[in-house]
Amino acid sequence: MSNKEVKAALKSARDAIRNKEYKEALKHCKAVLKQEKNNYNAWVFIGLAAAELEQPDQAKGAYKKAIELEPNQLLAWQGLANLYEKPNQIDVKGDLADVYQKLLELYESGDKQKWCDVCNKLVELYRQEKKYLEVAETWQKLIQMKQEEGAEKAELHQLWKKMIQLLKDSTRNQDNKTGQLLLTAFERALHSADTVPGEDHQNLYKDFIQCLSKFPHEVARLEKACHDMMALYPTMSYPLEVLCLHFVQSGTLSEKALHCFSRLLEMDASSGPGIIGFGMKCLKEKKYKEAVKSLTEGLQKTNQCPAAWYYLAEAQMKIHEHRNAVLSCSQALEALGIPEGPNLRWKSLVLQLKAETLIKIADADAPEEAIKALEQIVDASSDPVVSALRGQAYLNKGLMDQASKISRELLLSHPDLAEAHALEGFIHYSQKNYEQAEKSFLNAVERKAGTAEYHQYLGLTYWFMSDETRKDKGKALTQFLKAAKLDSYLGSAFCYLGKYYRDIAGDKSRARGCYKKAFELDETDEESGTAAVNLSVELGDMDTALSILNEVTGKARPGTAKWAWLHRGLYYLRTGQPSQAVADLQAALRADPKDSNCWESLGEAYLNRGSYSTALKSFRKASELNPGLVYSIYRAAALEQILGKYENAIATYQQILKKTDNYVPALKG
């Protein structure tokens, strides 16, 4: 086949492809290749025809042969790109990216429009594959090309905005280089904006600041962006809110942070981040109740702030609202999600605080929950304080051997750690080894004198220690006073101070004050509430007694606070108010239906009210529950007599006399 015939055959192949006669085209090409096996155009036409005949492997082989022959010729590369772009081509994205890269190289010095088209395709391919660094670098080349061609500022602005759009999902799995390119895109887009200040520019600034807040190492840049935006848009609270949340999350309470919080609250008194910041300030100043109030209010508006939930839990822990603190810790963990970077530190802090709080709760499942929380702390085994907490959790769970093992190991490895000595003290105290417990708690106090709990347990150790310290509880008093001074929310310290002043010092007034304080701190402490009421009655201060009882019964859910209902019911009975006595004694019985004395008092109240039949039922119920209540049996007989049930009355009187033959009221009856 002559050179002329080869050209003719190639022309026939081209015409056949144009007419969609692909098999015919293949014949012509094969004839050419018999004569010239390295004919570039013949291989390209075979690739084209085979692709249309859905023979992708043959097509790919033909294009690759052509490329091998002429690596810098466009046709084969274009054909291969078209082949890989077909929807039936699977697992070719990596190859297609390589083809696009080569096409960019070939178009660079020639057709700029085609270069841009391929560049767009390559960027989209990288975006689908989540190769954000390649997206960023390729798009930047496109912008550079446009800049060299003298593109208008508005066009460049749109290109930078497009780059931001392309990279917006990249912050989830950010590598540093991609992040820097994204932030550069924001800065260039902001500088190239046409209308400043303006709505589009403002929204772009917001997105930039939001993006910066996801980069923990870009603090200086974030602060600068917020201040720059505030200068441009002084009435907008958004940059201040982001800045405040940044300070909250970093745990910073510098002058700069405090200024930021107060400035935000001046601008918007209902701003969540501003109120949270104020709550943090209260926490630092040991104004714990105000801290709880502000942090709770702030979190109602800005609830996805793990640090704020942690500070709320800390404040609740300080005022011994342990159950609420556990809930706040759980909220913090939920807000953290799957933490990474600085949030890993937050997760460990929250889990440790949650465990500490659970150890203070007497529920059966609390120790197990505390152990689970501690197990989730990263590098927990290397932290002796976490080990001491685990020891306490084991002790609360009744696993004495595990607790003792941790205690021994800690005392060997960290002999100067207060928590190690305290754990040893808790173990001895639980076993009533008070002399050893005293030594341990003294060691703990020596190393950490500011911990109220250590003084409280040292006081309890002296309180229960021996006959000698039982007689002279001065040592116990000293420790309880120190504990109460260090932690004014420690209800148990005030309860034992109340016991001391009532039972040892005989100072009813001071005892009443301590019990009242203990009860105000912990409304579930029935012992302190009852003692405060009884001492108020003994001191002739019925107003205080009633105010305590009214407060408790006013808040009580049905079936709870029996002691308060009973005390107030008996007060009404004594003061001739039988109807009120009936209502309160019924409420007490809802909490404990098997209290025979309460049924007897209810019978008395009904009797005083003139409700004889109901009174009879109440006295009978009391004697059923406790057959030894002679007074209830006598009252039942007397009521049967009043109601004309003489035979029943006689039988009941005789029943009493069998047990107590000289019981005068029964004989009279």
TrEMBL record:
Name this polypeptide is given: TTC37 protein
GO cellular component term of the entry, any: Ski complex
Matches recorded under SMART domains: TPR
Entry's transmembrane regions: none
Coiled coil residues, start to end: 3-39
Species of provenance: Cnemophilus loriae
A Pfam cross-reference name: TPR_16
GO biological process, one term: RNA catabolic process
Keyword list, A-Z: Coiled coil, Repeat, TPR repeat
Gene3D superfamilies given in the database record: Tetratricopeptide repeat domain (1.25.40.10)
TPR repeat spans: 40-73, 562-595, 596-629
